[in-house]
Amino acid sequence: MISVASILRKAGAPAFLSTDPSTVRYCTGVSLSEGVLLITHAGISLYTDSRYIEEACCRVQQAGVSVHSIEDLRRRMQRIHMCAMQADRVFVQDHARWMRTYKNTKFIQTNGLIEGLRRKKSTDELREVRGAQRCTLHVLRQAERALKPGVSERAIAGLLHAWAQERGAEGLAFDPIVAFGSHTSRPHHHPTQRKLRARDIVQIDVGVRWHGYCADKSRVYFIGEPTERQRHIYAAVHLAKRTATTAVRPGVTNHELDRIARVVLHRYGLEQYFTHSLGHGIGLDVHEGISLSQRAPEQQLLRGEVVTIEPGVYLPGRFGIRLEDEVVVGTAV
After folding, report:
1. SS3 call for 262
2. What global pTM score does this model have?
3. For residues 123 and 51, what is the distance between their CA atoms, to the nearest angstrom?
4. From the CB of residue 219, how many other CB atoms can be counted at a distance below 10 Å?
5. What is the full DSSP assignment across 121-140?
6. Residues sharing a CB contact under 8 Å with residue 51, sequence separation 6 or more, in sequence order
7. ∠58-64-66 over CA atoms, to 5°?
8. Torsions phi, psi for 322 (to 5 deg)
9. 221/231 Cα distance (integer angstroms)
10. Can you tell me the distance from the alpha carbon of 110 to that of 113, in angstroms, rounded to the nearest whole number?
11. Distance in angstroms (rounded) separating the CA atoms of residues 96 and 90
């Protein structure tokens, strides 16, 4: 249940306005390409184009949400003299338009207000996260079966989209990473027409969107026997992931988890090849909330929060190995 009073108290204003799709969905349960969320002490209002009003009314999931035509927003805003907005989630042109259109309203910038609420997932949200995980695991099993010499990275990427939708997902949560051979040394490689060859190493990073909620998993496959160097690095990354996952609990900090994984890789002489954060929060957005990095502000993990654990080692021009799964803090998935 969304607490209107809590949001407005933290915002320091009698109203809160947002066009961010994830914020709209979190506060109303409605996914729209065009929608404006307005929160006041009178409740939560969703304004949208007349083409979407019937659909929005049918999809509202939060109690107390009213749906209105976007034409009514200007009249409503004339009575609001101070309004908070998400400074980090509003386009410059939208802000400029609001300033021109709602001349009687003073806009106050806020950061992370709704995002902070979204960190801790409800029971219903965790059910959708589990659905996203199950569907993603199915997609990965299909991908493993399709890894035959001659198939291209791009072909596998296209199939990932199809398998997700066939299984009932809305689609993929992000463009998948499919990398063969030396391409695996690039953490965010974009699939090419490169074809799979015998003795290649394969990296697949994929997640589906299930009823709005995202999954994010990474797997490594070997076409033939891995080399000793590949075995050594796979074992190191696997142990770093397992050790960090075991340490996940309410109250542990993002700095501590990142440090735990790096200590393991240091013992293997590989820490310098781990070039990104250990993980991130995940939910309606594939990257949201906390960052598991010592470079980010230090924060404690919350019970019910969902984070990814994804250590990786990348040898430039040779190969890379990253393993990733989501973890629910303080709750068995």
Report:
1. helix
2. 0.93
3. 32
4. 18
5. PPHHHHHHHHHHHHHHHHHH
6. none
7. 55
8. -130, 135
9. 12
10. 7
11. 10
315: burial class by Cβ within 10 Å (0-12, 13-18, 19+)?
middle
Judge: domain 123-328, CATH 3.90.230.10: yes
pLDDT in tens, the chain (333 residues): 688 999 999 999 999 999 999 999 999 999 888 899 999 999 999 999 989 899 899 888 777 899 999 999 999 999 999 999 998 888 888 889 999 999 999 999 999 899 999 999 999 999 999 999 999 999 999 999 999 999 999 999 999 999 999 999 999 999 999 999 999 999 999 999 999 999 999 999 999 999 999 999 999 999 999 999 999 999 999 999 999 999 999 999 999 999 999 999 999 999 999 999 999 999 999 999 999 999 999 999 999 999 999 999 999 999 999 999 999 999 754
As a whole number of angstroms, the distance between CA 22 and CA 3 comes to 17
- Residue 153 identity (one-letter amino acid): E
Alpha-carbon dihedral angle through residues 259, 293, 114, 331, given to the nearest 10 degrees: -30
Q: C-alpha angle with apex 147: 278 to 159, nearest 5 degrees?
A: 80
* Structure-block tokens of residue 319: 């190969």
Whole-number Å distance between alpha carbons of 70 and 78:
14
Give me the residue spans of the domains in the chain: 4-118, 123-328
Where b means 16+ CB within 10 Å and e means fewer, 271-304 reads bebbeebbbbbbbbbbebbbbbbbeeeeeebbeb
Report the topology of domain 4-118.
Creatine Amidinohydrolase; Chain A, domain 1 (3.40.350)
Distances (CA, A) of 285 to 12, 138, 204, 216, 320: 26, 21, 20, 11, 26
Count other Cβ atoms within 10 Å, centred on residue 14. Answer: 15
CA 103 to chain centre: 35
